[in-house]
C-alpha cells in the first residue's frame, strides 16, 4: 500500500492543480491577514471559507483522480498487489496531498505573521485539523461515489450534489424543521442532525474552541450546554473520525467485490 | 497449472460465461478464440482476478484464486488496450512496475529489441499506438513468470516488431511456459498456437490442436475451419 501511496502522491504533487490549490491558500491567507490585521478574526473568516471550499475541492479532486487514473488502476490490478491496497493507497495519496496543500498554504502566511508568538496558535491548529478531516471525509465519499458509478458524468453529478447537499441544502432543511417543530424540544434532534453532517460538525468544533457565543447558533449553543466545551470538542472530533472511518471501510469492502 | 470448472459470470442482464470448463496443464501456446463478445476477455480477466466470477472454481498453480492475490506474481499480463498513466515517462513506468513487482526484470534487452531507447524519456501520452503497444510488451515480457497471458498482442505492431514478438513467444515457449493468447489474426494464431480453445456463447465449444480442428470440420484451411465452426456446427 505504501508504494501505491507514494506513486499517487508524487503523481499529484507534480500536477499543476496541486500548485494552484496551494497558491490559492497562500494568497487567501496573506489577503485575510492583511485586511483583518488580526489573527483571531482572520481565523474566523478562514473557517467560513474552509468549511465550504475544502469539501468541494476534496470531492472534485477525489472523483477526478479516480476516473483519470482508471488505466493506471487496471494496470495495477493485474500485478501481485492486494486490491484494497491499490484503492486505499490511491485515496490516501489524494487526501494527503490535498491536506498538505492546505496546511502549507495557510501555514506559511500565518507563521510569517507571528503565529507562534500569539495565543491563537491552538485555534489555528484546530482549523487545520478540521480542514484535514474534511479533506479526508469528502475525498473518501468521492471515491465511494466513483466506485459505484462507472459513468463519469453520473459520478461527477452525484459528487457535486453531495457537496451541495452537505454545504447548503442540509442547513436549509435543518432550519426549516427547527421552525416547523419549534413547539417541541429539539435539543437531541439538533445534536443528532449535526452529527450527520461533517460540515456542520466542523463549524461547531471550531466555534466551540474559539468560544464565540455570538456565532455559535442554536445547535452550537445546545452542544455547549449539553456537553460543555471540552467534552463537546471531544464528541465532535469523535464523530468526524467516524465520518472518515466508515467511508474508507466501505471503499475497502466495495473494491474487493468490483469487476474491472 | 490453470484449472477452471463451471465458471459463470453475468454483467447485469448479460450472461457472459455460462459454465466454462478448461484445464491447462501442459506447457505450450494456447489460443483462446471466439467471435466478438464470446467472453474471451472476461475469461482472461477472471483468471487474473480482475473480474470476480459468480460461480465456479478457478485454480492457478493448484491454489484457488479467490481472495488471494499473491498468485498474480506467476502471471505476466498484456492488456488489450494499452492505456497508461499519461503524465509518466516510459522509463518511470518501467521502473515503477519493477518496483511494484519486486523483481529486477530484463527490460534493457527488450527495449533494445523494440528500439525504444529514443522514447524512454517521453511521456506516455505522446506515444503512437504502436509504440505504446511495444512499451506494453516490454512491461509484460520483462519478468520471467511461468504463465503469460497476451490479449491481442499484435494490435498496432509493425512487421518487424511482429517478427520480434513471434520470436519472443517461441523463446518463452521453449523455456516451458504456459502462454495464453487471444487474437483475431488467424495466420498469427495458426503459426504460434499449439492448441485452440474456442469459446462460443460463454462455453468452451472446441478444445484441441489445429490438426484436430481441421479434421473435425473437414477443412484444409485453418481460417475456413474456424469459420466453419461458427456457421455450420452451431447453426
Automatic annotation (TrEMBL), chain A:
Signal peptide: none annotated. The chain crosses the membrane at residues 20-36, 42-67, 88-112, 124-148, 160-184, 230-252. Keywords: Membrane, Transmembrane, Transmembrane helix. It comes from the Bacteria. This is Cu-processing system permease protein. It comes from Ulvibacter litoralis.
TrEMBL record, chain B:
It holds the Pfam family ABC_tran. Residues 2-226 form the ABC transporter domain. One of its GO terms (molecular function) is ATP binding. Gene3D superfamilies: P-loop containing nucleotide triphosphate hydrolases. The keyword Lyase does not apply. This is Cu-processing system ATP-binding protein. It comes from Ulvibacter litoralis. It comes from the Bacteria.
Amino acid at each position: 500500500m505504501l508504494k501505491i501511496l507514494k506513486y499517487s502522491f508524487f503523481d499529484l504533487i507534480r500536477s499543476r492543480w496541486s500548485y494552484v490549490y496551494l497558491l490559492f491558500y497562500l494568497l487567501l491567507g496573506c489577503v485575510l491577514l492583511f485586511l483583518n490585521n488580526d489573527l483571531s478574526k482572520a481565523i474566523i473568516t478562514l473557517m467560513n471559507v474552509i468549511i465550504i471550499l475544502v469539501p468541494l475541492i476534496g470531492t472534485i479532486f477525489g472523483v477526478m483522480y479516480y476516473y483519470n487514473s482508471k488505466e493506471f488502476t487496471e494496470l495495477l490490478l493485474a500485478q501481485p498487489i492486494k486490491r484494497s491496497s491499490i484503492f486505499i493507497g490511491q485515496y490516501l495519496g489524494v487526501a494527503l496531498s490535498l491536506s498538505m496543500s492546505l496546511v502549507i498554504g495557510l501555514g506559511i502566511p500565518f507563521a510569517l505573521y507571528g503565529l507562534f508568538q500569539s495565543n491563537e496558535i491552538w485555534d489555528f491548529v484546530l482549523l487545520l485539523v478540521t480542514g484535514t478531516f474534511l479533506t479526508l471525509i469528502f475525498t473518501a465519499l468521492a471515491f465511494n461515489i466513483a466506485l459505484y458509478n462507472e459513468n463519469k458524468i453520473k459520478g461527477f453529478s452525484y459528487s457535486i450534489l453531495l457537496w451541495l447537499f452537505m454545504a447548503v441544502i442540509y442547513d436549509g432543511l435543518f432550519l426549516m424543521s427547527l421552525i416547523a417543530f419549534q413547539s417541541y424540544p429539539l435539543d437531541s434532534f439538533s445534536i443528532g442532525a449535526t452529527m450527520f453532517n461533517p460540515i456542520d460538525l466542523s463549524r461547531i468544533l471550531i466555534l466551540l474552541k474559539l468560544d464565540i457565543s455570538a456565532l455559535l447558533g442554536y445547535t452550537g449553543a445546545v452542544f455547549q450546554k449539553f456537553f460543555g466545551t471540552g467534552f463537546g470538542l471531544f464528541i465532535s472530533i469523535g464523530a468526524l473520525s467516524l465520518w472518515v472511518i466508515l467511508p474508507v471501510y466501505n471503499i475497502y469492502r466495495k473494491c474487493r467485490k468490483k469487476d474491472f | 497449472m490453470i484449472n477452471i470448472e463451471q465458471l459463470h459470470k453475468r454483467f447485469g442482464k448479460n450472461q457472459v460465461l455460462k459454465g466454462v470448463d478448461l484445464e491447462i496443464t501442459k506447457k505450450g501456446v494456447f489460443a483462446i478464440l471466439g467471435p466478438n463478445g464470446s467472453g474471451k476477455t472476461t475469461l482472461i480477466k477472471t483468471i487474473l482476478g480482475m473480474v470476480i466470477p459468480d460461480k465456479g472454481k478457478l485454480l492457478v498453480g493448484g491454489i484457488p484464486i479467490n481472495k488471494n492475490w499473491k498468485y498474480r506474481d506467476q502471471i505476466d499480463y498484456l492488456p488489450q488496450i494499452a492505456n497508461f498513466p499519461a503524465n509518466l515517462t516510459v522509463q518511470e513506468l518501467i521502473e515503477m512496475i519493477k518496483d511494484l513487482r519486486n523483481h529486477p526484470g530484463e527490460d534493457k534487452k527488450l527495449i533494445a529489441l523494440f528500439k525504444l531507447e529514443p522514447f524512454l524519456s517521453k511521456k506516455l501520452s505522446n506515444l503512437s499506438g504502436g509504440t505504446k503497444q511495444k512499451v506494453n510488451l516490454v512491461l509484460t515480457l520483462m519478468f520471467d513468470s511461468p504463465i503469460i497471458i497476451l490479449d491481442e498482442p499484435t494490435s498496432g505492431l509493425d512487421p518487424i516488431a511482429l517478427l520480434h514478438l513471434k520470436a519472443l513467444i517461441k523463446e518463452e515457449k521453449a523455456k516451458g511456459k504456459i502462454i495464453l493468447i487471444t487474437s483475431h489474426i488467424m495466420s498469427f494464431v495458426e503459426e504460434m498456437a499449439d492448441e485452440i480453445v474456442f469459446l462460443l456463447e460463454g462455453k468452451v465449444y472446441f478444445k484441441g490442436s489445429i490438426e484436430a480442428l481441421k479434421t473435425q470440420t473437414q477443412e484444409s484451411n485453418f481460417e475456413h475451419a474456424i469459420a466453419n465452426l461458427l456457421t455450420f456446427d452451431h447453426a
